[in-house]
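Bench notes, afternoon.
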Amino acid sequence: MLVSILMPFLTRQTAGPAPALLAALQALAAQPGPLEVVVAASVPTRRADWTVALRAALGAAWPHTLRLLHNGYDERRPPWGRGAAINAAAAAAVGEALLVLHADCRLPADGLAAVRQALAAGALWGCFRKHYQPQPRLLAWQAVWLNLGDLRRGRPVGTNAVWVRREAWAKLPDWRLFEDFALADRLRRLGPCRVLRSAVAVDAAKYLRTGPLRAVLLNGLVVTFFRLGLAAPDQLAEHLYSRRHLPAGAAWWPALLRQTGRCLLARRQPGDWSR
């Protein structure tokens, strides 16, 4: 069975292949085929330059089919949101099953074999458990909580590497954030989520840069605002989740309060939440 991996990617790097994307693709080389990887990337450079550089860095020995979609953004053309990027990748994919994989996640060695086995047994959709690398104690407890709580309720997120039969796929909202919630909510109405025993390894770098406690609190705040309908996904992505407006040190807490207020005020502006 041909599995198509859909990989959204956003970078501000203007020269050469982004190391994070290159590492993600190299990590997939050992996965058993047949396998197709469709990368939908927002890159601030010309398509031809970026494509040639990435393929050259991967080398001719890379064993799988690779499709590269490119949204060259600038001040006049915004980058793809994550939902839009995944939609573009899904439209270009030809596999019988689709698997959404973030570039900071690594499938287990038996990952695709386990997906194919579950699909052959009749599963419609499912996901992996997850753990963090490296994994401080707080992130370890968060992984346990998410694996035992949210996954049992059929609520995987993007870092759980959701997979689905092609016929059950439907277009996602073009949001920058929480497109994974929309996908899980839709698939849960079609059937139960098959949670595989093996786990995806999630790079914990962004949690460690923010600080594990602050990162966990920030994620909880963003999810709560979304679930209660207090702020639009794109506003949450811009003002809170991106962390661009949250400085390190003691200034983090006042900045969090300021950005939270901006999210609440932006909720009243038409357009963002109605898409």
